[in-house]
Amino acid sequence: MGIEEYGGGQSGEAGVLVVTTNDVPGYKVDRVIGEVFGLTVRSRHIGSQIGAGLKSLIGGELRGLTKTLVETRNQAMDRLIEQARARGANAVLMFRFDVTEAADIGTEVCAYGTAVVVSPQQ
């Protein structure tokens, strides 16, 4: 496609273009497939909660929690891409993340957007 794509597999699978915009300059939307999402819920273990509590007293980045959140977001995005590809999309428009506390036991991360088929404009 000429633009950075995500989720290209080693087996020759094409990647899926993921953008936060409503369109892609130089491309036209041939077909709107619909909403796709990737969801994951991560629980916090007691060690990270204690470490984060102590770190918050002295200030600074909570590196363990940052690492966990990055991994969680990546997992949600991977699931979004899998769903888009399974439905025949080669792009996801209006991509967003939503993060919610899940019943005081963890964090829910949802990656969502609109799955579409795009092609270069002539």
TrEMBL record:
InterPro entries, per database record: UPF0145_dom_sf, UPF0145_YbjQ-like
Top-level taxon of the source organism: Bacteria
Transmembrane segments: none
Record-linked Pfam families: YbjQ_1 (PF01906)
Gene3D superfamilies: Hypothetical protein apc22750. Chain B
Similarity annotation: Belongs to the UPF0145 family.
Protein name: UPF0145 protein ACFP1Z_26720
Organism of origin: Streptomyces gamaensis
